[in-house]
Amino acid sequence: MRHGQASFGAADYDQLSALGTRQCQALGQWFAERGLRFEAAYTGTLRRHAQSLAAIAAGHGDTPAAQLWPGLNEYDPEALVHAHLAHQMASGASASPLPAPGTPELVKAHFRLLSEALAGWMAGRIAPAGMPAWPDFVAGVTGALDHVRQQHQGDVLIVSSGGPIATAVAQVLGAGPEAAIALNLRIRNSALTEFAFSPKRHHLLSFNHLPHLHAAERRDWVTYA
Question: Do 204 and 169 share a structural domain?
Fold first, then answer.
């Protein structure tokens, strides 16, 4: 699952909003109502991952403690955009940082710029500070999938972020970087992506669905950032 709504536009993005907590509690309740019990739970090391799992556990009542897997951490969007703008300027193109995304138009502009930066990172044109190269990022994600196949047989819950989830889907489907970017920018907060796995491979069952938010009174709980 992707973490619940975090604090987009705030000084510290890496914490759930009140709505993000409710989204994850609702997911935990949905799991419990269907009798789902998890053999293990994995998260990245980000605060929003831990807070999401805690909220799921509050709604579920019987969720395993997290096993931390740094390869499930999100990329750094600020570092990506900074490296992309620096690359543009070094190439002689005009570039200027965007102001805080306080309007719908600026939010769209922010994500257009992020998409360009992701493409540059995946192609090896930019090396954002503090971030792994794209092949190493992919290896962190696929390493988590490999570990699940090797160590587990029952249901496993993984709490991560849009970038790693989109990367996992693209890798399982054999899709390229452009598909990974498009998938990444469509993943909703607390959305489930399901894989079936055997000792040899993963198979995609579903992507980006919100069964715990289908009720009419929860339609305004659906968020993306």
Answer: yes
Domain total in the chain: 2
Each residue's pLDDT tens digit, 168-188: 999 999 999 999 999 999 999
Look-up of token digits 């890496």: 14
Q: How far apart are CA 189 and CA 147, in angstroms?
A: 25
Beta-bridge partner residues of 206: 194
Packing angle of the helix pair 162-173, 134-151 (nearest 10 deg): 80
Is residue 121 within 8 A of residue 134, CB to CB? The reply is: yes
Phi, psi of 191, deg, nearest 5? -70, 145
The residues facing 192 across adjacent strands are 209
Beta strands 156-159 and 192-197: pairing type? unpaired
CATH code, domain carrying 32: 3.40.50.1240
Asked whether residue 13 is domain-assigned, the answer is no
Residues 201 and 157 in one domain: yes
pLDDT of residue 37: 96
Q: Are residues 119 and 180 in the same domain?
A: no
Residue 142 belongs to some domain of the structure: yes
98 has pLDDT over 60? no
Q: Looking at residues 70-91, what average pLDDT do you find?
A: 93
Q: How far apart are the C-alpha atoms of 135 and 137, rounded to whole Å?
A: 5
SS3 154: coil
Mean pLDDT of 120-134: 97
